[in-house]
Amino acid sequence: IDGVGDGPNSCSVIAYMDDCTICVPAAIAVYICTAIQDLSTRHGLTLNVNKCRAIGPAAATLVDCPFPILLDGDIVLGNPVGTPAYRQQTAQQITQQQTACLPTLDDLKVSPPAAFALTKFCVNARANFLARVLDTEGFEILSQFDKAVDIAIFKIAEHRPDNSTALYPYREEVSATIRSLPTSYGGLGVPRYSWIAGQVGALRSRGMFRTFVDTHFAHLTTFLTNRLPEITIGGGDFPPFPLHLSRAAEAEADDTLVAEGTSLGDLAHAQYSFYASAIAKTLQAPNIIGSKARAAWFISSQFKGSGRWLCPPFGLHEAPHLTLSDNEYVAAIRLRLLLAPFEDTNPTLVPTHCTCNTAIQSATDPFHSLDCPQNQAFYHYRHDTCRNVLYSFLRARLDSETTTYELNPLLHSLDGTVMQKQGDIAVKSVPDDHHVIDVTVSNPACATLTSPPYNAHVVTNAANIHSENAKRTKYADTKELQDDIFVPFAIEATGRIGPAAKVFINNLFLLQTLTRQRLGMKTPLEILQCQISDALTKCNARQILFHRLTTWQRRHRDGNAAT
Questions:
Q1: Using alpha carbons only, what angle is made at residue 140 by residues 137 and 143, rounded to the nearest 5 degrees?
Q2: Which residues, in sequence order, are CB contacts of 343 under 8 Å at separation 6+?
Q3: Does pLDDT of 403 surpass 50?
Q4: 3-class DSSP state for residue 323?
Q5: What is the mean pLDDT of residues 462-476?
Q6: 540: Cα within 13 Å, side-chain hemisphere
Q7: Torsional sign, CA 154, 533, 318, 322
Q8: pLDDT class of 225 with cuts at 50, 70, 90
Q9: Where are the alpha helices (DSSP H) in 5-83?
Q10: DSSP letter for each residue of 218-238
Q11: CA–CA distance, 212 with 210 (Å, rounded to integer)
Q12: pLDDT digit string (tens) for 34-44?
C-alpha cells in the first residue's frame, strides 16, 4: 500500500498478487491510467487494457480514458464493489451460478453419498468467500443460496417437506435447521450462510478489515468501523427455525470482539446449542409436533463423532460392516432428519398396519420399526454388531502378547461358583488386570424410555444410564460386580456410548489418550465412538428398509386377499 500526494490529489494503491486497485480523485484518473500504461511499456510489459476498469459514478466525467468505464461497479477480488443495487444484483447472479449445477445431481441419478459430498464440499463451500465479503447486505441473497442447498439435500433424502400437509407443522424449518447444525449437535453439518456460518464469517472478515485499517489508515478507524451495521450471531431475519417458537438469547458481536480475542467459535457453538435445545423442546410440544420419540432421538444424536458416516474422511477404507449402500444411506439420512419410514409418501398408498398388526402412527411413533416386537432378530444383530466392533477394537490396540480375550465368559457367584450368567467379552492383561464387559444397546426413542422416570426426550444419556443400572441390578449377585471388574457397556441406538463405558475405555487407554490429546489426534474413545456410531447407523438403516419392505408386502398381500 502506498499513499501518493496530498489533499485533493491523494491516491491509494492496494495490490494483492497481480490484482491492483488504485483509488484516485476523478480529476487525475485519466492521468493515472495513462501513466500506468507508460510505466508498463517502459519496463517491457504489455498491459491488458480489456481487463482494466475505471469504476465509480464519477467515471462518467472522464474524457479519453484508455480503460473501459463501469459506473455502477465491478467485481474486485471476487467481491462485488459499487452501488448497493449493483452489489445485490451481482451477488445474486453469482449465487445462482453457484447453485445452477445442483439439479444435475438429481437428473444424473448420482449416488446419494456422492451427491451429498458434492453438495457439501463443492457447491455449498462456494458461498464461503461471498458470505465473508458481502457483510450484512448479503444475508438476504445468501438465504436464496441456502434454500437451493436445502432442496438439493432434501432430494437426496427423498424428502418433500410441505408444512400444509406434513404430519406436523414446521417440518420444513426443522429439517432445514437440522441440515445446518454441526454433526455433534445432531445435524448434517452443512453450514448455512445466511445464518450463523455467514455471521461468523462476516465478523471474522471485519476483524481482518479492522486490523488493516488500524495499520494503514489509523485516522479513519473510528469513521469506518462506526458505519458497520450490527451483527448478532444466531439472530437476524434468516434463521431456518422460527424464532417466535422460542426466542434466542442472541449473542451480540462486532469486529471489536475479534480484536479483543473473544472466541467467535464459542459464540457460534452457544447458538448452535441453543437452537438444538429449542428444536428438542418444540418436538415435544403437544400443540405443535408432540413427538417425544423424535426429541429423544435428536438429543441422543448429539455427541462428538456422530454423523461421521455422512462424509467419511477421504481416503479412509471402510470395512463392509460400516459401509452404507445407496438405499441404506438414504434411510440413514432420513432418520437423521427425524423422518418416519413412510413420511412423504402418498397417504393413499401408505400401509395402515405393521406386520405386528400395530397401526402405523408416523406422527406419534415414527421409529416403531426399531422397536417392533416382530424384530427380535434385529435386536440380536444390533447387539452382536456392537460387541464385534468393540472386540475388534480392543484386539487391535491392546498388546497381543500380554492380553487374552474370551467371548461369552461365564460369571461367578460371590463364593466363586460358576453361574449360568454370561458377559460378552473378558479381557485379561498380565498380571491381574481383568475386566468382564457386557454390551447392551437400547433405543432412546422407545415409549418406555420417553416416559417417567427416564424421560429420554429431556435427559441426555437417559437410556444409557437406565441400561447401566439395569445391568448392575441383574448381575448384583456376581463376584465380578462385587470386585468392580464388571463393565456395563451401554450404547444408545444412535451410537452414543454410556458414562461407564467411556470411563472404562479412557482408563484402559490412559497413556494413549493423554499422548493423542497432546498431539491433537483422536483419542481411542473417539475412534471407538465413530466406529460404533457408523456400525449402528448401518444396522438401523437396514432394519428400516426391511420394515418398509415387509410392511409393503403385507399391504400387497392383504389387498390381493380383499380383491
A1: 135
A2: 166, 167, 334, 362, 366
A3: yes
A4: coil
A5: 97
A6: 31
A7: negative
A8: low
A9: 29-42
A10: GGGHHHHHHTSPPEEET-SS-
A11: 5
A12: 999 999 999 99
Task: List, as one string, the DSSP characters of 158-207.
Answer: T----TTTSSSTTHHHHHHHHHHS-GGGTS-----TTTHHHHHHHHHHHH
Burial (0-12, 13-18, 19+ Cβ within 10 Å), 480: buried
**Rounded mean pLDDT, 487-500:** 97
Choose among 201, 86, 63, 65: nearest CA to 142: 201
Based on the number of CB atoms within 10 Å of its own CB, is 190 exposed (0-12), middle (13-18) or buried (19 or more)? buried
Calpha distance 276→278 (Å, rounded): 5
Name the pairing type of β-strands 425-429 and 403-407. Answer: antiparallel
Find out whether 138 and 354 touch, Cβ atoms under 8 Å.
no
Distance, CA of 155 to CA of 115 (rounded, Å) = 10
Residue 1 above 60 pLDDT? Answer: no
Bridge partners for 442 per DSSP: 492
Residue 206 has pLDDT above 70, yes or no: yes
Could you tell me the three cell numbers for 426? 473378558
Res. 255 pLDDT band, cuts 50 70 90 = low
All three cell numbers of 293, joined, read 420419540
Residue for cell digits 451460478? 97
C-alpha cell at 94: 453469482
- Does 103 sit behind a cis peptide bond, omega within 30 degrees of 0 on the bond before it? no
Cell numbers for 415, please give them.
463364593
Output the CA–CA distances (angstroms, integers) from residue 49 to 25, 33, 348, in the order listed: 20, 10, 65
**16-28: b or e for each residue (b if 16 or more CB lie within 10 Å)?**
eeeeeebebeeeb
Put residue 416 in one of left, alpha, beta given phi > 0 → left and psi -120 to 50 → alpha.
left
Tens digit of pLDDT for each residue in 293-304? 999 999 999 999
CA-angle at 437, arms to 432 and 441, nearest 5°: 170
Quick one: average pLDDT of 183-211?
Answer: 92
- The one-character DSSP state at 497 is B
Torsion of Cα atoms, 219 then 15 then 193 then 184, to 10°: -100
* Distant-in-sequence, close-in-space partners of 268: CB < 8 Å, separation ≥ 6: 196, 197, 199, 200, 233, 234
Q: What mean pLDDT is predicted for residues 328-336?
A: 97
Cα-based distances in Å from 257 to 138, 215, 223 = 21, 18, 18
What cell was used for 280? 428438542
Nearest-angstrom CA–CA distance, 509 and 427: 13
Examine residue 25 and say whether the peptide bond preceding it is cis (omega within 30 degrees of 0).
Answer: no
Report d(CA 518, CA 540) in Å as an integer: 35
Taking each helix axis from N to C end, the angle separating 292-300 and 264-284, rounded to the nearest 10 degrees, works out to: 150
Q: How far is CA 181 from the centre of its chain?
A: 5
In one-letter notation, the amino acid at residue 440 is T
Residue 182 CA neighbour count, 13 Å, CB half: 16
CB 398 within 8 A of CB 434: no
Span between the terminal Cα atoms of the chain, in Å? 84
CA gap 549, 481 in Å, rounded = 43
